[in-house]
Design a protein that fits this description.
The complex is a heterodimer of chains A (236) and B (245).
Chain A (H helix, E strand, L loop, with lengths): L4 E10 L2 E11 L3 E5 L6 H9 L6 E6 L2 E2 L9 E4 L11 H12 L3 H10 L15 H14 L4 E5 L7 H16 L3 E6 L10 E6 L2 E6 L1 H8 L4 H13 L1
Chain B lengths: L2 H17 L1 H25 L1 H34 L1 H6 L5 H30 L8 H23 L5 H18 L11 H8 L2 H14 L4 H23 L7
The chains are: A alpha/beta (236), B mainly alpha (245).
Chain lengths: 236, 245
């Protein structure tokens, strides 16, 4: 299968400190989860895929083109950790604005609002919605252009369990329709839902495989313990 | 650059303004109230002073107001992540800038029509040149204010800092633009400085319009303000980076 993303020898510095160093990674289809503690470089890696991160070396190619290049801007959907939508506009106004920028249709606006289950809130001002609802508006914007790659930085933080379940079902539905979904999380129980799992710590990928492979390799029953075992093994 | 995206940005900015009724009311009503206050101050003392200072204020309002509005709104776009999201989409920097300029230019046009209407219709300000040209000057001034605001927003981390740029960038221009002392009477060094400040030309344009019916020199001043505003927008564009660290 063709890889959606190919990263070679990626190096990112912030000031004197290396955030990512000599990172090699390929990402294919399905739902790929990026797990690791806060501050380990997850967001930086995601920003590299979208092409908004200044890099010190290496290459990041998405569908064969350099990340962030013009041809990719309507093929990659991106949700940052911050709710990057306009607080003083309604849900529909936000979506319609981004749809005009992307050249997406009104139908796509309705579909995006529906897929994050906000149809009954479409005329509410975003600033008055709950935190979880706001992050779903942000997610809806990323779904708008029907992207081929979805980069989601902790999209399920603060959501109630039922909704989290729904969103993961949505991610898998999108993945089945051919979208490469790349999701980060620091919640280990979400790891089980991924087709492929990357464990990240201090700027390095310390484990890569399906959740069951990773658990088997560490000989434990859950991903959290696997993470701990792998970290200890690395430290030893 | 794409017309569709530019107009989308302009429309979105106007929708946000429409939703913020208090800001919109202040944008439109405050200049009228302040200019009326000025007229009242001079009414007993020396009514001719109003004819000298009134036009300068008509140039200064759009610059100050649009400076504040633009620096705070673009800072908000930078810090909320909406700018990063937009730059990761098929949006040109010019689409963003021109979209903002169109929206605020329109607001400035309405603001100026109201302020000029009050000044000429109610307060008896004498305008020798064509009235519509006053609005043209005001719109160019507003774009200048927006360009300056956009530029400083790159150097502010918080909205509080952004507002502090107003005394740093706008007030010196206000002191030197001929509002307090005609520019010809300034000390030589200050006169030279005032010659390179955009607000001086904005105020000159308004004062010429009210005192003479020949429009040639006005257009020359407008051209200078427009050129400096475009320079400011170009500098502002340089601060919009797709890749940040």
């Amino acid at each position: 299968m063709n890889n959606s993303v190919t990263i070679q020898d990626l190096w990112v510095r912030r000031g004197e400190r290396s955030v990512l160093e000599h990172l090699d990674l390929t990402i294919g289809g399905g739902v790929t989860g990026l797990l690791g503690p806060s501050g380990c470089g997850k967001s930086t890696l995601m920003r590299c895929l979208v092409g908004v991160q200044r890099i010190a070396g290496g290459t990041v190619r998405v569908f064969g083109e350099e990340a962030g290049s013009r041809g990719l801007r309507d093929r990659v959907g991106y949700v940052t950790q911050a709710v990057s939508v306009y607080q003083d506009l309604t849900v529909a106004e936000n979506l319609r604005f981004f749809a005009r920028v992307l050249g997406a249709s009104r139908d796509q606006v309705d579909r995006a609002i529906g897929s994050v289950d906000l149809t009954s809130y479409r005329d509410d001002v975003v600033g008055r919605l709950s935190g979880g609802q706001q992050s779903r508006v942000s997610l809806a914007v990323a779904l708008l252009g029907e992207p081929d790659l979805l980069v989601l930085d902790e999209p399920t933080v603060g959501l109630d369990p039922v909704l989290r379940e729904d969103l993961w079902a949505l991610f898998h539905r999108l993945a089945r329709s051919g979208v490469a979904v790349f999701v980060s999380s620091h919640v280990m129980d979400e790891a089980e839902r991924c087709d492929r799992l990357l464990l990240m710590r201090e700027g390095r990928i310390i484990a890569d495989g399906t959740p069951s492979e990773i658990k088997e390799r560490a000989d434990v029953d859950d991903v959290e313990s696997a993470f701990l075992a792998i970290v200890r093994e690395h430290a030893a | 650059m794409s017309l569709r995206v530019t107009l989308a940005v302009a429309r979105r900015v106007l929708t946000q303004l429409r939703r913020d009724r208090r800001t919109l009311a202040m944008l439109l009503v405050l200049p009228c109230l302040l200019i009326s206050l000025l007229w009242w101050i001079y009414d007993d003392a020396d009514p001719r002073l109003f004819d000298r200072i009134g036009p300068a204020l008509l140039a200064i309002f759009p610059v100050i107001v649009m400076f504040l509005v633009t620096s705070v709104t673009t800072l908000r776009e930078r810090s909320s992540g909406t700018l990063e999201r937009l730059l990761a989409m098929p949006l040109g920097k010019l689409d963003f800038l021109v979209g903002y300029a169109i929206a605020f230019g329109l607001v400035a046009a309405v603001q100026s029509i109201l302020a000029v209407g009050v000044s000429v219709g109610l307060l008896g300000l004498d305008v020798a040149g064509p009235l519509w040209l006053l609005t043209v000057v005001a719109v160019v001034d507003a774009i200048l204010g927006s360009a300056l605001g956009l530029f400083v927003s790159a150097f502010a981390q918080t909205e509080f800092q952004a507002v502090q740029f107003m005394p740093a960038i706008v007030i010196p221009q206000l002191l030197l633009c001929g509002l307090l002392v005609p520019r010809d009477l300034l000390p030589d060094a200050l006169h030279a400085v005032s010659d390179v400040l955009p607000l001086s030309y904005a105020v000159d344009a308004m004062q010429r319009l009210t005192t003479s019916s020949s429009t040639g020199p006005v257009w020359r001043d407008v051209a200078v303000v427009a050129a400096l505003a475009l320079g400011g927008l170009a500098l502002g564009a340089a601060t919009l980076r797709r890749r940040t660290s």
